[in-house]
Input
Amino acid sequence: MSQTTDTVRVYQRVTAIIWQRLSPTFGIRTINAIAKNALARATREHPALAALKVGADGLEWGALEARVAAVGEEEIGAALEFFMDEFFEAVATLIGRLVINKLFVEAEEEIRKEATE
Output
């Protein structure tokens, strides 16, 4: 087994855990939509990622695994790292928006409560 294949397998395990943990909170469709967007941005910088697809249940790695030998370890590692950075940035933005919206609603409720007292 090549080092590149090991690299891909590590990212497969990591993303499976991420999908498993985030899906109950945000829903699989939301997580997949974030991944599609992040993948589109990452593919512009790393064309090898065009082989990575987002399916109904998460990432589909088969086509990328088939191209690993032709792409090279360094490029695959850099591409997957770039994709994960894009993905986490988008998830962080989503979480930040949710937190800010919740704080805003709580602040409005507090203002209304004080206005009626």
